[in-house]
Fold:
Amino acid sequence: MSAQEGALRHIGILNDYVRVPYANGSSFASQLLYREFSARGQRVTVIGPHDPEATSADLPRNHVFLPSVPLRIHPGVHLPLPSREALAEVARQNFDVVLAQTGSGLTQLGVWLRRTHGVPFLCVNTIHLASVYDVLLPDRLHDSPRFTEFCKQRVVPWVESQLVGTYNGSDGLIVLSEGLAQYWRDRGVTVPIHVIPRCIDPKIFDVNEPEDPFPAGAARGHRLLCVCRHTREKSVSRLLEVFAELIAPAVPDATLTLVGDGPDHDVFRAQALELGIADRTYFPGEQSLTEVARWYQHADVFVYASLSETYGQVIGEALWSGLPVVAFEDGMGVSQQIENGKNGILVPPGPDERAANWRFAGEVATLLREPSRRQTLAQAARRRSHDRSRIDQTMERYYAAIESAREHCLRTLHGQRSRAYLPLARWAAFHVATAALGTLRPPAVVNRNQRRPPAWDGIELVNA
Structure:
């Protein structure tokens, strides 16, 4: 679709960051969409929270700032809030469609625009609530079985029901895997659901003979790599235990490198020391996108224990780079990308966790011992990923979803323009409550390497 053919002139993207402060797949996906829509003739404007640390180099050419409050636990994260002036500025943009690349209360801005100005509105599911709800909780509550069970049984279903209401107040939901499409249908989503996996930018990940970033102690042929945010829900603790208890004793030269940073980075480093694997476990911190591509190119096996992935961008990046993956089967984004035994290995995570860990470790050890098996999986990983993760294919699906949303809005909007204040009230209440919860844990140290994510135009900023 061209801008002229579909009269699609101006696209708004709701994003949790206008300045992207640290590596996160959702915002990187927004940046790629910003560039690709712009290259195809659309004007694209990013709407998100005001960030007092932002410089002109950090920002997209077209953007609208919203008033915000900081999330104390995560430096660099700001929670947007509605105001009369900001809403008027957003309304003046005269969007042809708005895309909510966020799972926060900011989605309510799209609902408000639809109700008050008839702007077609598409949501993208970017978080798995059942896995990430406890990020804000202090250790005492996180370690309380009674409280965590209460959250799983009462809090998470309630929040999901609120999300269902938001999605059904839109013109369509984009999910990143078939498993999540069924997940949201089962919970009551009735608007059209579009499955659009993320794509890979070859300009970043097709690297020719990159410099080897691994430390000298990481022997070639025995390098395990994991790239992720260092937070509880990524199951890094489980991965460290599997490596220490089951992989390291079986493969004496094996090393584990965990690229990334986050609130629990120091906790994981301390755990590696306690498990006696500090000399075989490397924590290089957050890296820029071009640097991450080098780590994929020089690793031997990518290992992943997370069960919280709506997609798992790092899995796609590893496969694109020809790196075989061993991961736990999640029924969501990871399972969508890995064809068990063909381009990687999927291991059921339970119900017997100990048995699952043994199987995971056995698969990893086998790949480290059998270079020919690794090579077969690597070739299939690269071939299949290049077939299914092309930018042009992803953009075609987005344009189809946008056309569907515009048709849905025309067909269903009549009579829905009342009670426009309700989305704004929900938005403000949710973010004020989140900001309060964010004071329960000490502020995290994130991106201590001071790596600069790429700018919105695709140019990688110089490291600070």
Observations:
- Residues 307 and 330 are 5 Å apart (CA to CA).
- The chain has two domains: 3-199+390-437, 207-388.
- Confidence is low (pLDDT under 50) at residues 1-5.
- The two ends are 40 Å apart (CA to CA).
